[in-house]
Amino acid sequence: MRPTAPSARLLDRRRSWILAVPVALILGAYVLYPSLQMFAEGLKAEGLGELITLRGNANTRALVNSVWISVLSVLGAGVLGTTMAYGFFRFDFPFRRLLMGIAALPLALPPLVGVLAFLFLYGESGIIPRGLQVLLGLDSVPFAFEGLPAVWLVHVYSFYVYFYLFVSAAFRGIDRSVIEASGDLGASGWTTFTRVLLPLLRPSLVSASLLVFMISMASFTAPLLFAGTENFLTLQIYNYKTNGNLEMSAAVASLLTIICLAFLGLIEMDRKSRTGTSASKGAGAPPIPLTSGWLRGLVGTVGLVLLVILLLPIAVVVLISFVQEGSWTYQVLPQAYTFANYGSLFSQADVFEPIRNSLFMASVATAANVVFGVAAGLLITQGSIRGRAAFRTIAMLPFAIPGTVIAINLIVTFNEPTVAGFGQVLVGSFWLLPLAYFIRNIPLVVRATVSALEAYDPKLSEASLDLGARSWTTFRRVMLPILTPSILAGTLLTFVAALGEFVSSILLYNFDNRPISVEILAQLRLYDFGAAAAYSVLLMILVGIATLLVRSMGASAESAAV
Asked: Is 346 part of a structural domain of the chain?
């Protein structure tokens, strides 16, 4: 019989090197080298000294605005997400199950679509400001989303879901006996929350705070459409590039990358510090029914308002998708509706072209992500060589690198023939955009594969090997069927992320490969709101289908593990 310990790994040293060489080449050529090239380009910038010393210029204001909005986004999203998670966890009230079902909805919205919905709703020409103006008989709109407050509100709506999901998961792991003991000792609900539950939630709150801060620092779409004259680091990168100052664009991108990498390091340190913590041994606490009539009415009303706030952006985008071009100018609501916006999506070649481009580029990038992600995941968890932790760290780097920075990395690196570009100048070519999608989504399939392999019981492989099966047969017949749901979930998430990607696309596209997201912005600038919204609805439908598939695969994986 074979020794048990060595047989647990499917990849011996020779097979490990066979995987390590291409994985290392891809990570080096498309992740590390472009980043180093960007840093080198940034060192040539004439304004580098002012950027480093943070003198009172546009870059300093951009840094202050980015950090300040990120801090406020963490606070706002944290309060909203944690409050929602606690309310659903502790109390049973009207609309509770419905609200729980849609609370994670902003996570499924492509970033550009969510921002577009806020523009239609709360912008200067939006439905709500214009509606209040008419209702109150005012000469001008009473308010309009613009500037830093608008960016912050969009961030809170988009990012609270991370706190909600992290804290909800933590609540599900809390033993009901802990809460019951606090109540038996005479503690009030507030005391129980602040003195008992909040310390237990600290790891989840820290993780969500670090993640939201990093994502907020990398935010581009909300500042682009709402910031006005206010500067942000991501906008500075975009503005420098569009003005032809690539060196200064690379310098600002380097600064933003350093900040995001620092927070990725903090996230990894927090993850490692919580590895191996014991789970709850008891059952979770059931929600407490609200018996008071007025209290149920109050909470039900608040829940209904929250339901409207969450669903209104989607409903407005759907409504605007039927608007006839030119029929919505100063009016509160559009005056003419048509199905032509949807009909032209598939009947007119020039209108369908962005859809075809996005589907093709997302498919190519996702296929590459799956092949690379599974290979890297196997190497990281099953390899027999040293340095596997380095592969894992480098594979996670694109998660911390903002889309604007990835775009600048590729522009700096591939604006001349290179070996990684197969001797071609990729800037301005069709293939640079799917390459950006591939790089940006590397962590999704890698993390899905690694997580599935770490949860995989190695005794199954040991039994297969002990019974005489070869490593390839063991992987194909034993491991792969168990890992498939997680890999497919990562694949779908990768496809959806590539399909709706906007931040890198706006810097890298050309007319021949313009994707849906760029076309949405183009139609918006042409004031063809109906066409922009129709593209957005199509994106939401595709994201919704993928989300349902991911959930069903997750349920299948859980049932298979039981």
From this structure: yes
Beta-carbon contacts of 235 under 8 Å, excluding residues fewer than 6 positions away, are: 62, 220, 223, 224, 227
- Maximum pairwise Cα distance, the chain: 87
What separation in angstroms does the CA of 549 have from each of 492, 493, 496, 546? 8, 10, 12, 5
What is the pairing mode between strands 91-92 and 288-289? parallel
Place of tokens 């770490």: 454
* Residue pair 452/486 in contact by the 8 Å Cβ criterion: yes
Q: Domain with 176 in it: what CATH number?
A: 1.10.3720.10
Mean pLDDT for 513-538 is 89
- Residue 212 has a CB neighbour count (10 Å cut-off) of 28
Burial 115-145 (b: 16+ CB within 10 A, else e): bbbbbbbbbebbbbbbeebeeeeeeebeebb
Show the domain range for 378.
4-273+290-321+339-561
Model pLDDT for residues 12-63, shown as the tens digit of each residue: 788 888 888 999 999 999 999 999 999 998 888 877 777 777 666 888 888 9
Does 5 have pLDDT greater than 60? no
246-260: average pLDDT:
89
